[in-house]
Structure to design on (398 residues):
């Protein structure tokens, strides 16, 4: 079974909604408060209460400032706070990644270097608590996957440190590039930059189609506003996916290329995989006028099409491509980190009919080969032999 967390965002997402949903019987409040003490931040109080949105009970969290704080922070200031804390590596690394994404989005919006970005509201104590607190809760739940829904974008004006700006905020739009969204006719901010950064940083994609799953618990987090058009809540489901074969609809994209430097092929394939492609392959073909060429074949989730399109039109010589939906079946798999004779290493755990197989990861074997100055085939053989006798229960899911 694969343990998963699903962020269901019918009315948007923000940092305080994240925390509220986690603290709605999924994560103990006192545990979170104790972990937050490791930040060594003063001048705030975490307030947690039950409320309702359209007659739906939900948990509302607010960070109450008890003393005046530094007005603006740079990314380096926040990284300093995190590095000096005694939080776990998972929480520190995750929070740094979220703030980095926020900083890069702000830098692009305002056309300034990353190191000169003032975080304003995002650098305030309440946002630091929201982001770090969400990472603490995510680590507590020990899930293998984090799935998310599409996010709703609305309209209106919001007043921030930079002045009045259109909704969605410019930084929010930057963060949601290539992420699946939909429009709802609501006036007011539904997705905040913090919420967008959290979702896009940790999402493993949309919930897989046609895969049986069971729900253990559901938490509801309330937003600060009560919209007349919809209940302003974020729902977090925690459950397990079945070990049966997963069936899903993907896109198969095909491109014929006969005018590109072959030395660029590996780079293009790497960029496509980084952009969300599930699989990329090249095969030799004979094209019109007897020209030798290659057939580039790509598999990707439907929501990744915009990102793949951008890569093809900017990183290759093609001026067009074709695609169609197809069904694929695959086995559930989870990336685990285990203790091994070569130290901590990541492996892939595959499930079928209740039987677990643990397989080496190429990048990990490559890393060990380089660190130990041993031939890659030798490392592969040793790792495979070790994994044959490895007890899967000792592995920890990422």
């Amino acid at each position: 079974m694969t343990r998963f967390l699903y962020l269901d965002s019918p009315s948007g997402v923000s940092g305080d909604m994240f925390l509220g949903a986690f603290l709605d019987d999924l994560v103990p409040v006192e545990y979170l408060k104790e972990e937050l003490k490791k930040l060594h931040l003063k001048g705030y109080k975490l307030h947690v209460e039950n409320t309702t949105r359209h007659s739906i009970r939900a948990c509302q969290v607010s960070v109450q400032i008890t003393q005046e704080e530094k007005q603006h922070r740079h990314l380096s200031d926040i990284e300093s706070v995190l590095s000096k804390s005694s939080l776990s590596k998972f929480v520190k690394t995750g929070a740094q990644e979220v703030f980095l994404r926020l900083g890069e989005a702000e830098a692009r919006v305002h056309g300034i270097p990353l190191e000169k970005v003032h975080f304003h509201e995002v650098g305030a104590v309440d946002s630091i608590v929201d982001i770090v607190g969400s990472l603490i809760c995510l680590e507590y739940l020990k899930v293998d996957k984090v799935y998310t829904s599409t996010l709703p974008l609305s309209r209106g004006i919001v007043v921030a440190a930079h002045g009045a700006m259109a909704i969605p905020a410019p930084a929010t739009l930057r963060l949601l590039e290539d992420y699946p969204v939909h429009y709802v006719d609501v006036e007011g901010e539904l997705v905040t930059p913090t919420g967008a950064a959290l979702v896009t940083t940790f999402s493993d994609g949309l919930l897989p189609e046609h895969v049986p799953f069971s729900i253990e618990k559901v938490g509801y987090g309330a937003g600060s506003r009560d919209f007349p058009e919809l209940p302003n809540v974020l729902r977090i489901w925690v459950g397990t996916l079945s070990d049966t074969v997963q069936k899903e609809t993907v896109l198969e994209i095909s491109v014929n290329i006969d005018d590109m430097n072959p030395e660029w092929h590996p780079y293009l394939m790497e960029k496509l995989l980084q952009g969300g492609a599930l699989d990329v392959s090249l095969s030799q073909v004979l094209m019109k006028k007897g020209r030798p060429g290659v057939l580039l074949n790509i598999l990707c989730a439907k929501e990744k099409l915009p990102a793949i399109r951008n890569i093809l039109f900017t990183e290759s010589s093609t001026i067009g491509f074709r695609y169609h939906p197809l069904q694929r079946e695959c086995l559930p798999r989870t990336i685990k980190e285990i203790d091994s004779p070569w130290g901590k290493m990541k492996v892939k755990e595959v499930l079928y009919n209740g039987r677990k197989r643990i397989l080496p990861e190429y990048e990990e074997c490559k890393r060990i080969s380089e660190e130990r100055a041993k031939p890659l085939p030798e490392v592969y053989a040793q790792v495979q032999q070790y994994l044959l006798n490895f007890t899967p229960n000792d592995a920890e899911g990422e």
Notes: The first helix runs from residue 15 to 22. The chain has three domains: 2-241, 249-330, 333-397. Residues 2-241 form one domain. The mean pLDDT is 89.
